[in-house]
Known about the structure:
Layout: H1 8-11, H2 15-25, E1 35-38, H3 64-76, E2 81-84, H4 96-105, E3 109-114, H5 123-129, E4 130-136, H6 142-148, H7 158-171, E5 175-181, E6 184-185, E7 193-194, H8 199-209, E8 213-217, H9 231-244, E9 253-256, H10 258-264, E10 284-288, E11 291-293, E12 305-307, H11 314-320, H12 328-331, H13 339-349
Parallel strand pairs: 1-2, 1-10, 2-3, 3-4, 4-5, 5-8, 8-9
Antiparallel strand pairs: 6-7, 10-11, 11-12
Amino acid sequence: MTLNRLDLVSKLYQPAMLQKVTDVAHGSTSTGPVVVDLDPTTFCDLACPECISGKLLNQGRFTPERLGSLADEIIAMGVQAVILIGGGEPLAHRGTRSVLKTLGEAGIAVGVVTNGTLIKQNLDELSTYASWVRVSVDAATRETFGIFRPDRKGGSVFDKVIENMRALAESKRGALGYSFLVMVREDESPSAVSNHHEVLQAAELAKEIGCDYFEVKAMFDDDHHIVGVPDEVLESVESQIAQARKLEDDGFSIIDSSTMLSLRTRSGPVQPKDYDRCRIAELRTLVTPSGVYICPYHRGNPKAQLGDAVTESLPEIWQNADRGLIDPSVDCRFHCARHDSNLELEAIKVGRGRPALDTDEDPFI
Length: 365
């Protein structure tokens, strides 16, 4: 069986993690997470107006020494996968190259979410050690990129990003993804500014570059609620996705995320949850320079902070933290990508789980 990268529920049944998953489903606390989201830095070289982490940017970074010791602690805890993400731009930290190598040589799967501007400087490590690299592009032209993903001087570095992606496509061992966030910016002009008209063109460019997949996502507001779009925008995006699927072959796929499903079904900004504890918090965590948090949805939320990885070791934080401090029924009414995984853990608890899979393919639960 080949696991879909977004099939987070099926991934729970992989042999290497199933015992931990089962224990957590029945109420146990885990000795360590399966996946760690790691923000090396809060600094970013772009100035995207719609950045969901905009209020948290440029407020510090781990020292290279602490970032290196964090990698060692992650290995010692038996973590299976790490996602270098942010907050800021993970490749902007000069210690990220070393972390990629350390984790990769320890057999830990590494994913990287990046804006693509610094791929060339990290090309050898990304090519050798990254299980996947997802580049947030959100455009198909220099002009649209400059509107939604400008650099600090207001310019467009689209050509640089695409050139960097081409270079990685030629040398990579893992997968390369082109991410497209559908955005509509309401302003004082007669019509809204949007990037939605470039979905098909971006998908064509992604395949031409040598990407393995093209992903379409819906936009979140600052509180992680999905932002709706006008009917004509959704219809346009849907039509372009349908046309883009004609590009699919054994080496290239089109992915529309669960957030697109929410747009499609008009689910609205609220995702109700009838459970009061996030069991997935026993299997994943977020480590940033400002603190260790329950998950990326609560990045920077003092109520969801488990500890301080600048002054405490990650194993100590994990051992001492109360990972039940967030009540999903109250604190997580936004769309959560792991809601279905939490429901599956409830199913496992009452004996309605699925059979175990035969092989381990993808630890990024």
